Amino acid sequence: MKKRNITEFQILSEVVRKQPHIKQKEIADILGITVQGVSEHMRNLIKDEQIKNKGRGEYIITEKGMASLKTWISNFKNYLNDVNQNLYRYKDVWPAIATEEIVPGETVGVYMKKGIIYVSKNIESDATAKVFYGGASGEDVAIHEIHGHIEVQNGKVIVLKIPSEVMGGSRNVDYDIVQKTLEEYPDAVIATAGTVGTVIANKLEIHPDIRFAVSEGIVSACNRGCDVIAMITGKMAEKIIKTVDKNKISYTLLNASKTTDSIE
């Protein structure tokens, strides 16, 4: 974000909080800039039809301004998440899971699987670390002095569009397609939303990793290198596809209904 854009984002935020009665001096004090600076930015926002001057110090945000504000908020969240991940890389001590017994002082290979950091003496990796606290296979250990890059490629999403209850629910699911997908991606994170998805998971004796805040959970899992199988009914599937598409995550949509006329 450019400095000007950030300032205008802040001014739009203040307009939303305090409209319609806006005092430019209050905004200037909050942002730490001059009243003249606030006035100039507000003129730009009025010219761009993002806020409207109703006279006598009354300003309101327009639909265009609201859309801009939502876009900036989304971009800023992504920016902060990226900064936070980079900060996390520079922690002094990291937790990891040992794949065999390791002892303090050893140099181990570091890699990520299903969004979790693992360490091993017997694996070649671009990243290495020293063991701070050791442990047996499967235990959590502490590592430090990390060198190299822990490669994390974004995962992809396989959306299994399942029928809603009015379209037959779990009775109208093509379980062969579901089972084939599960076998094709054995390490994938499983996401379900709603009753039908829960029933399908129970019938297949699988335990979903994501059941709540599904869209956010899917994006988070993919950003940590996990593939995700999402068993979702029609309308929710559309919402999730919009979310992953917005976050530039690759996805495949499969119809998991027995009958084609059951697609919503």
From TrEMBL:
<dbReference type="GO" id="GO:0006355">
    <property type="term" value="P:regulation of DNA-templated transcription"/>
</dbReference>
<dbReference type="InterPro" id="IPR057161">
    <property type="entry name" value="DUF7839"/>
</dbReference>
<dbReference type="InterPro" id="IPR036388">
    <property type="entry name" value="WH-like_DNA-bd_sf"/>
</dbReference>
<protein>
    <submittedName>
        <fullName>Conserved hypothetical archaeal protein</fullName>
    </submittedName>
</protein>
<dbReference type="InterPro" id="IPR036390">
    <property type="entry name" value="WH_DNA-bd_sf"/>
</dbReference>
<dbReference type="InterPro" id="IPR012318">
    <property type="entry name" value="HTH_CRP"/>
</dbReference>
<dbReference type="GO" id="GO:0003677">
    <property type="term" value="F:DNA binding"/>
</dbReference>
<dbReference type="Pfam" id="PF25211">
    <property type="entry name" value="DUF7839"/>
</dbReference>
<dbReference type="Pfam" id="PF13412">
    <property type="entry name" value="HTH_24"/>
</dbReference>
<dbReference type="InterPro" id="IPR012015">
    <property type="entry name" value="UCP_HTH_arc"/>
</dbReference>
<feature type="domain" description="HTH crp-type">
    <location>
        <begin position="14"/>
        <end position="63"/>
    </location>
</feature>
